[in-house]
Amino acid sequence: MRCLVVIRFVLSLALVIALLPFAAPQAHAQLRFIVQLDEREDSGYWSRRNQQRLDALVITTVVGLAVLDGTETRLGSTAWRAVDAALMTAVTTEAAKRVFGRPRPIDNDDPTTWFRGASNRSFPSGEVAMMAAFATPFIMSYREEYPAVWALGLLPAYMARARMMSQAHWPTDVLAGAAIGVAYGMYATGRETPLVLSVTGRSVFIGLRHRF
Length: 212
Hints:
With 212 residues, this protein is an all-alpha fold. It has helices spanning 2-18, 20-23, 25-34, 48-69, 74-100, 126-142, 154-165, 171-190, 195-199, 208-211.
């Protein structure tokens, strides 16, 4: 039941953000100018290859920590919650992309164009959502003892900027993606046991580091 409440909240939040261009098109256009969507810049630091490298690095690191440490350590348990958040985020963003059918800025320069078919996948940004989902459980778990952990917020921030610089997403796409990832990250953190393990009938996972 709690999971359904969270999913409804996340979808409602994404819908509110989706409606921003209609409610305030001038403000959205101004935001578009601020992030320089008019000029495509996806080379060097913002290149698509670097975006994909960051995706691979974060996924490998978090999953590796979860498998190595298991749920018997704080770090491993947090990593499992990050995996939970990422999986729920992936399902939600994929469903939302199919429903909203929003063209990417590189394909259509009108931010109020929606429902053009499942092949149009601009809203919400899945990669920004995933970065936020991975980062949030670690920030929530360690923020008081290690304030530097807030630096993980740079992961979704970089991805948001990079995806907009590539003209792959509108500002509202990355905002919605970040909101979805943070919401699921907070939900996963608050669970007593990792969701992915409870679904498989296991509440504890002995990490490889402790097993051998």
